[in-house]
Amino acid sequence: MSAARGRANQSLYLARILLDAWDEALDRQELPARVVSQAFLPAVKLHLGQAYGWFLLAAAQLDRLPERPPARSAELPPVPEGKAVPGEIRELSQLESGGWLADMLADEQPLAVPQPVARDNLVVATAAVPGPAEARDWLAKLGALFERMGDSLDEY
User: Fold this and answer.
1) Are the CB atoms for 61 and 156 separated by under 8 Å?
2) Are 138 and 28 in contact (CB under 8 A)?
């Protein structure tokens, strides 16, 4: 296993620890669920995003790793002349443009206090902050993606 894949796995593990703590905090019901989610979501997304970035570096098969992982495939160093962009990088780039991976990588500001919208003298709730179930789904999909692509990377 490459150093980048090891770091990706460590970041997935840290996200899993935070998700367990998030569930426990919700179970205690000491704070509103939205507040608990606002506290945990940024940290979970940070670890999932770092896992993704380290995996991008593993797929790029770089000789030297940077201090920090890229946030998206567009931030990878250019492919050396005469080499093709790995198929895994092309696939990940497509996944970044829509669907679950795009949602996970989105830069929304979950800490901002939502302002309810009034319509016809009724207060309408604003968009919900993703909860631990959605974050666990991201974790599972990222893990499955890493496993599938990791198998093909091992063949190189």
Assistant:
1) yes
2) no
